[in-house]
Amino acid sequence: MMKLNLFATKLEENHTYIIKNIVKRIAAMGAAVMMMSSMAIGASAADSFSFYISNTGSVTSKVINARNAAQDDYVRVNYRIDNISNATSVSYRTTAGGTYIASGEISSKGNHTTKHTNATYIDKGERILCTMSLNPAPSGVGSHASGYVSGK
Prior knowledge:
Elements: H1 2-43, E1 47-53, E2 58-59, E3 61-68, E4 74-85, E5 87-96, E6 99-106, E7 110-117, E8 127-136, E9 144-151
Antiparallel strand pairs: 1-2, 1-9, 3-8, 4-7, 4-9, 5-6, 5-8
């Protein structure tokens, strides 16, 4: 009887050990998946915008983090306008590391890639921020624009 109890105890300990290992592996896989998804988010650190003016409210401006500068002296920013209606244009004001780099207006749909140069102030790794703003038509109501901004 003693051998049977010893065997049952060993079997229970072995079972507990196996279950603990399974739980550890599941936790490790979950952590790996979370890490990979956060890396993917960081790799595409850019953002979309959707501006509108209606009778019930409006959104007309947004500050977008468009990644970090990939090299010294200049940044390349892609302003993609997917939709623009009843609006004259979308304005942008771009900074790198807190220093003003460029500004302008875009009035047509499509990709508008620009190379902004400022050799004195742009260092690799500085954050690129773009303030996007809607320039509505004179009537205002019904103006809409949407798109995406990314940089490197």
